[in-house]
Amino acid sequence: MTAPLKPQSVGELAAHVSGRVVGNESVLINAVAELGSAGENEIAYVEDEKFFEAAKASRASCLIAPKEFVSLMNGAAPAFIEVAKPKLAFALIAEILHPQKRRQPFIHESAAIAKTADLDLTVFIGPHVSIGDRSRIGAGTRIEAGVTIGDHVSIGRDCVLHPGVVLYDNVTIGDGVILHAGVCVGADGFGYVRGDVSYHKFPQVGTVVIEDDVELGAYTCVDRAALGQTRIGRGTKLDNMVHVGHNCDIGERVVIAAQTGISGSVTIEDDCVIGGQVGFGDHIRVLSGAVIGSKAGILPGKIVRPGVWWGIPIQPLDEYKRLNAHLGHLPEMRKEIKDLKKQLEELRKKD
Amino acid sequence: MTAPLKPQSVGELAAHVSGRVVGNESVLINAVAELGSAGENEIAYVEDEKFFEAAKASRASCLIAPKEFVSLMNGAAPAFIEVAKPKLAFALIAEILHPQKRRQPFIHESAAIAKTADLDLTVFIGPHVSIGDRSRIGAGTRIEAGVTIGDHVSIGRDCVLHPGVVLYDNVTIGDGVILHAGVCVGADGFGYVRGDVSYHKFPQVGTVVIEDDVELGAYTCVDRAALGQTRIGRGTKLDNMVHVGHNCDIGERVVIAAQTGISGSVTIEDDCVIGGQVGFGDHIRVLSGAVIGSKAGILPGKIVRPGVWWGIPIQPLDEYKRLNAHLGHLPEMRKEIKDLKKQLEELRKKD
Amino acid sequence: MTAPLKPQSVGELAAHVSGRVVGNESVLINAVAELGSAGENEIAYVEDEKFFEAAKASRASCLIAPKEFVSLMNGAAPAFIEVAKPKLAFALIAEILHPQKRRQPFIHESAAIAKTADLDLTVFIGPHVSIGDRSRIGAGTRIEAGVTIGDHVSIGRDCVLHPGVVLYDNVTIGDGVILHAGVCVGADGFGYVRGDVSYHKFPQVGTVVIEDDVELGAYTCVDRAALGQTRIGRGTKLDNMVHVGHNCDIGERVVIAAQTGISGSVTIEDDCVIGGQVGFGDHIRVLSGAVIGSKAGILPGKIVRPGVWWGIPIQPLDEYKRLNAHLGHLPEMRKEIKDLKKQLEELRKKD
Fold it and tell me: Are A309 and A328 in contact (CB under 8 A)?
């Protein structure tokens, strides 16, 4: 667990999340923890009623909790912070107690930086990094060991590039972006034209734009556009090993779980939620607010409307469930048909 | 977008693809572009009739188009190149206007190269590369930053190894091969023998051969053979994050989309096309010319004949569609059976 | 193929696996090989009766075989090693003939090692490695080129970290662990809380523990716990590109094939076997001894009992097969219902 900066009082933490303190506001807190394992000087949260019993037994120095719990439980912990959304408050308090690692401005002597690159004075550049011609890196950005940045790349302020990230030439990264280990932005899209005897590469000469506050998981790949640009919108979060094909346009505040694969020229509008291992054919449009369950498969060219979708190929979740229930009756249905045939036969004989 | 070498005239470009110029053959072109966004000095293509209207509205300086379109549209653009296969011509022209990045022969001072390695004088070796004992690299090959090449590796001419590629010991790479970021060739295959209390590694002491003109997408992994060799045939193209298990034999001009996983000892013959997220059990043989749809699953030992296949487990696409149509009738079938039972009951009572 | 240390006699090899020599025990062996391609001074194995014919034709200098084969075939090869489990004996003998690459203790001059790091004198550190503050590396461990190790990481004895491995801060690796190229341990788990306008990161401040004798395939990712720890138990083997989410607890001697994805807080107990491309929802518990087929999907919160499971969502394999068989009868069932309706109609008319 990362070391906290310095302990904070319950009063200070409550003020940060506009919560009401019940109990001793001077109790000191130095770490977030789970209800079950939290101990002295640690803070935990309880949101769902089904964890109220666990919360009563918790040895945390402070509990973040909703009003109904606090009124019920006054005295169960040295201090409470009463808020409407305890989990959100817990996340915001964790940001204070466990801030992202800070690095002093520094350039490791082993870094290979092109003379024409333009680095803010406050950047951190770790060992074995390489940065190409005319690339630009903004204030406070941290580039960890072994990152490779091509030519004419633009990276904003306060980004973190974890070890082994690869940025091909001519891509653009916004402010506050977090790229986990090995993220690859700007590799050639997968497009070929079959000639008489072999495949020729369809031109992959477009760009990629990653907007502000995006976070990409380890080894997630965002391919460069054939022509034009591939885009990941502001505040969007992708898990590990997601594949985003050429010319995709992913909107703002989209969440995509691990190992999902998105073919070329797919549009996913703002605020969609996509499960893990989902597969998208090309030229799909997912309308704002759609939710697609894990392992779903979507046929090329499909328009996915708002609502919850499931299955291969996708159906509305309700229909999927209904069909699945019917499927379970198949053995019984076969038996019934057999019986009907027999009975009918008997009736006929009587006739 | 990569900068073009120098503008080319429509006449020069047409000659390159054996096309006929209609209009002004001295118009200069410096970039390929999409129909919709193309402007002055740019060239676009139109192949499908459904884009003829968009092509008429295009502001491209030159359009590559089939005969029927050119005769229809003479005058809509300053120049046309008339060819039978416009998309292919567009790809070939893009190769001229946007050639792959060239690097002058160079070895970065930070590269760690074994004394016994044998490098052609014309290679480019970027920063933080390491090359092991007795490895050999051919003329014109470009090794980008952070690539690791083991011992006794052979790499041909005119290859490009993008940042972070890892080649284990004893693997062989042909001529004109492109390996995108983080491609891993030669890691141990996944094979264990259960002993009394734990697993023992089945020997993974074979090799990998990647033939000429292969392109492998970012983080694609080709495992070494247990015994013998794993092979990727000439001109084959794999997308990002494809897994190729030990002892697989992938033929020539095979195309495999992203995130497909291929278990050990699978053979895929020449000219097959495989979608994304497909899963192969071990010891499968896919016969030349088969096409397997995305997300399909193929059981171990299966022989897949030419034709189009779909589903889990795979079926011929026609059968899959038929079965899916029947599935949609399940609710109705259950109702019909109920009705039949009721009617039969009534008939019996009458009896 | 890796060069063997030195030839061994059949007698020495037999002693190592407690096997009985039939034939000439002084025959020298220098490599393992497949039945079909084995030649002089090579050893192959035959276990299954269906390969007895191939074994008879083998030109191997020694065959490892079960009693029934040896008694049948005396004389077919210069020497036999008779054992109850030939494949296991073959694996054990391969460990002797093809030992893992040994590296002399060495630290490459390009490695960037924090002053506060604590390295055993016998470690091998390749080029372009970086090791953070207060990290500790045990005796005989081999760190290949381009590996990045964060702060306060603990690595045991006799491990191999292949090129490009990334270990985030505060993770713990046991003894005898093999991490293939690009394995990523300790990246942030995927957890966010939706605020009024955007997502906030749920704290990802826990750790990861990888126990002794674990092997992880290329680009496999094991995320750090939100709070608490993510664990991979002793002797467990994961293939390439497996995703293990935050707070997962994977037991001992578990085997997981390539591209499987495991969501947060999943428990997989000892001795389970999981196929490739399987998807796990969160908070699943897989009980010891369960086997889950490739491409299966398991819904969140599910408890998976011992036995063989298949499909999306998973069912016991027997039920899955039965249901699939019924599915195949759907077209026929529809026809039967139609016939029944017609016959019933006729009966009624007669009435």
Answer: no
**What's the CA gap between C204 and C190, in Å, rounded?**
8
Query: Any idea how long chain C is?
Result: 351
Same domain, B307 and B332: no
In this structure, are residues B166 and B128 in contact, taking their beta carbons and an 8 Å threshold?
no
> What are the pLDDT digits (tens) for B334-344?
888 888 888 88
* Non-local CB neighbours of C192 within 8 Å, separated by 6+ positions: A237, A255, C199, C200, C201, C202
Residue B3 is assigned to a structural domain of this protein: no
ipTM: 0.94
State the CB neighbour count (10 A cutoff) for residue A74. Answer: 11
What is chain B's Cα-based Rg? 27
**Chain C stretch 103-132, residues whose beta carbon is closer than 8 A to a beta carbon of chain B:** 108, 110, 126-128
Which domain, by its residues, includes C325? 319-350
* Of A37, A70, A97, the domain-final residue: A97
How far C88 CA sits from the closest chain B CA (Å)?
A: 6
- Residues of A in Cβ contact (< 8 Å) with B94: 202-203, 205
pLDDT mean over B210-214? 98
DSSP string, A130-180: EE-TT-EE-TT-EE-TT-EE-TT-EE-SS-EE-TT-EE-TT-EE-SS-EE-
C323 touches B at CB < 8 Å:
no
pLDDT band for B9, please (50, 70, 90 cuts). Answer: very high
Domain check: are A135 and A45 in the same one? Answer: no
Tell me: do B195 and B235 sit in the same domain. Answer: yes
Partners of B219 on chain A (C-beta within 8 Å) are 182, 184, 219, 221, 241
Domains identified in chain A, total number: 3
pTM, rounded to two decimals: 0.95
Domain boundary among A43, A71, A97: A97
Mean pLDDT of C259-276: 98
Digit-coded pLDDT (tens) for B141-176? 999 999 999 999 999 999 999 999 999 999 999 999
